[in-house]
Amino acid sequence: MLQGRRVVLRPIERADLATYTPWFNDPEVLEYFGRYWPMTLADEENWYEGQLGDPSRVNFAVEADGVHIGGCGFANIDHRNRHAEAGLFIGEKSYWNQGFGQDILRTLVDYGFHYLNFHRIYLRVFADNARGVRAYEKVGFRHEGRFRDAEWRHGRWMDILFMSILSHEWQPDAKSSEVEG
């Protein structure tokens, strides 16, 4: 388990899947999330089985106050070049706009640099997701580029921003994260 200031990142258990399914069918949760079609419990179970033992990704369930509130992880892990794509979401809307996203990302990034030995961590974010962009900037991510009209969403084309942070740029706070046995 990874301990952040206010969150715990822990392995995803099969019992968590029933919580993910309603989140991934909620239009508000999906507004800026990669998925854009309905998800069944069977879809979620297939995803779960597929990610087990896959060296190109590592995923966590996120808890705050003992409540499962979302998920995060790394995808497209490139061990040779020491980089990966970070992603996160908060499905429990009562935890939105309270700084939990920053804590999740700080904890994940710290793990990536200090335990997985990454050199670069990157992410993609919709350009009009101002809340997400601000959170990523506060954690230390820098803008790398913009893919114009990259994805069709909500009846219009949306730009996607690419952001990253390098290991030598990482400035963890004293209590950003700890790995527990």
Explain what this protein looks like in three dimensions:
The protein has one domain (about 1-180): Gcn5-related N-acetyltransferase (GNAT) (Aminopeptidase), CATH 3.40.630.30. Helix content is about 25%, strand content about 35%. The protein is built from five helices and nine strands. The chain has helices at about 15-25, 25-30, 40-50, 100-115, 130-140; strands at about 1-5, 10, 60-65, 65-80, 85-90, 120-125, 140-155, 155-165, 180. α1 (about 15-25) crosses α3 and α4 (about 100-115) packs across α5 (about 130-140). The radius of gyration is 16 Å and the shape is globular. The model is unreliable at about 175-180 (pLDDT under 50).
Give the SSE map:
Blueprint: E1 2-3, E2 8-10, H1 17-23, H2 27-30, H3 41-51, E3 58-64, E4 67-78, E5 83-90, H4 100-114, E6 120-126, H5 130-139, E7 142-153, E8 156-166, E9 178-179
Helix pairs in contact: 1-3, 4-5
